[in-house]
């Protein structure tokens, strides 16, 4: 942390970010920085989408507690948010193997989530990518997705997501397409949805009423960090 702090002190960088690192490591690093009076991590970059939600177990709560922003990548499924109908059409045209084809990234659950997002997109007269970005937006006010595109239409779809407001029913339909297991101890404390605040913990609710500081509300407009590149 001292080496990173020196970069800030020398004005070579403004803020520190960390990516793909266990939550406990980031927490200990930030606590060390607090004790020594040096620069802490301000932002976390990690993989996150409606089909890959593992980051919600520990990393996202850690960011809330540490006051860190989140810059998720893979929000659009890394180009693999394709419905069953779209995949069949690609196979019929023998296009499935064209362009990027990474089996490790193209997971089965992405098709299931894409099918659910398509229904939401039709209801809002928009497209799947806009729905995917809007879904991430519902999780908090300091989320800045890293998105990419190869066409002007991709850029327009990303901008369109700024004005898309998903309903609770929309979010529920998307998330139940691939049920997410928060794992122990979250499910032990709060059931399938985990425990995000004291009101979710069944043990404490048996012994009284507890108040807590509410999580900041999602702003109407959020920022998209746009990485626009030409891929051949």
Automatic annotation (TrEMBL):
Any one GO MF annotation of this record: oxidoreductase activity
InterPro entries listed in its UniProt record: AKR_Detox_Biosynth, NAD(P)_OxRdtase_dom_sf, NADP_OxRdtase_dom
Occurrences of domain NADP-dependent oxidoreductase (ranges): 3-177
Alphabetic keyword roster: NADP, Oxidoreductase
Pfam families assigned: Aldo_ket_red (PF00248)
Assigned protein family: Belongs to the aldo/keto reductase family. Aldo/keto reductase 2 subfamily.
Protein name (Swiss-Prot/TrEMBL): Aldo-keto reductase, putative
């Amino acid at each position: 942390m001292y080496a990173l702090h020196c970069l800030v002190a020398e004005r070579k960088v403004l803020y520190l970010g960390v990516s793909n690192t266990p939550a406990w490591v980031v927490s200990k690093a930030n606590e060390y920085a607090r004790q020594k009076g040096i620069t802490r991590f301000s932002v976390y970059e990690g993989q996150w989408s409606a089909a890959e939600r593992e980051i919600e177990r520990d990393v996202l709560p850690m960011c809330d507690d540490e006051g860190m922003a989140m810059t998720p990548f893979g929000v659009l499924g890394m180009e693999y948010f394709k419905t069953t109908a779209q995949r069949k059409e690609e196979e019929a045209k023998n296009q499935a193997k064209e362009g990027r084809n990474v089996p490790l990234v193209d997971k089965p659950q992405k098709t299931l989530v894409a099918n659910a997002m398509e229904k939401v997109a039709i209801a809002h007269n928009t497209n799947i990518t806009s729905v995917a970005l809007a879904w991430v937006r519902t999780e908090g006010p300091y989320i800045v997705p890293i998105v990419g595109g190869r066409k002007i239409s991709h850029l327009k779809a990303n901008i369109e997501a700024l004005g898309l407001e998903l309903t609770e029913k929309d979010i529920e339909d998307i998330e139940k397409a691939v049920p997410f297991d928060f794992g122990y101890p979250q499910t032990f404390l709060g059931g399938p949805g985990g425990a995000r605040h004291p009101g979710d913990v069944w043990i404490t609710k048996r012994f009284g009423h507890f108040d807590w500081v509410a999580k900041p509300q999602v702003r109407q407009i959020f920022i998209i960090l746009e990485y626009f590149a030409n891929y051949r």
